[in-house]
Amino acid sequence: MSSTPTRLILHEDWTVVVLGGLIILLAISGVIVPVPAFGWSSLPDLSDKVFTISNLRAIGLQFILVLFIAVIGAVLTAKPIKRFLISFPSVYVLTLLALFLAGNKQVKALNLEAVIFSLSIGLIISNVFRLPAWFRETLSTELFVKIGLVLLGTSIIFSDILKAGSLGLIQALIVVLSVWYFAFWLCRKLKVDDELTMMISSAVSICGVSAAIATSGAIKGDSKKLSYVISMVLITAIPMMIFMPYIATYFNFPQQVTGAWLGGSIDTTGAVVASGTLVGDTALKISTIVKFSQNVLLGVAAFAISVYWTYTKNPLAKDENTRPTLAVIWERFPKFVLGFIGASLLFSFFIPAEVNAGVKDSLKSLQGLWFALAFTSIGLETRFSDLFNKNSREPLYAFLLAQGFNIIVTLIVAFLLFD
Fold this sequence. Notes:
- This protein is an all-alpha fold.
- Helix content is 78%, strand content 0%.
- The chain is built from 21 helices and no strands.
- The protein is globular and about 60 Å long.
């Protein structure tokens, strides 16, 4: 028999919708994976809290579930199963190491998230050792990222938008629109490439890591560029988290203004909570509400960016007479966005509150695990020469200037709305 190239059984985006839907269906049907504990503050804690029989069992059950889902994904996307069964457990073990490191109390105080450790571990290995080509080819970075995004939709509950209050939503809309367009204009001025421009604009204006990931998926962006943007987001969040509360206290900003300022400008939810806690209960409450209001806009933004990217980047778009039709837009539209929106609608209007309460922690843990697996994979397929080179300075300048603009605009809007 003549050998023929393997063909996809299902396009990757539809595969993600199927796999994300399967995870959700299993959860609401009662197949709830226990949430492993990774928190520890000293070496004795590792044996007393992390390496207990019950916790190792939870880790094992979670591994079985994600392996089951990942293998189905490999079959549907025509990856070689034997090699995938070697590479995936390796990626999982490295990701577990990242979760252990991120679970340390001192590390948590610095708000260093698991994804930065998983990315760093992967980068170190890929740059110290030369991984075989077959190993790199079996990595499923995009699949893992998009499964995490579909699961993220389960935590964006439409009824919670009302709890955010009108002021939080108004601030979110003003800040997201103004900062996004400023960042977009600035990147164009600095001649940053189109993919990085979209990722930086979304990361600075909406909700940091999740927005960058969603945008990269919407435009089918380069994973190396995504890792660079994520690194900038996580690194800049640390000094902002530490210094902004002290600036607000020094100038005697009202707590509600400070909370709105922190929630609207700091790009990671964990850093927002940490900084709000440094100020007080009112600041913590307002900052969380405002940050959530921005997070709610993620699905809308991903949809809009997908349509824009398809309409402007299609080769036919250069000719006014051959602009992409609705059929072309649908063909190129990233279907994982539909999974994200569908999950949000399902948990907003159809899943009873008691069922949601029973599954949300498990789904949240799985969402974080898929993201961490993705960033371990990104690190393993990236070399430092690709991530940081002479062409990386302009995106860094654009990001920092856009973040400075974000801080100033958000403070002005916070005073106008919350003072």
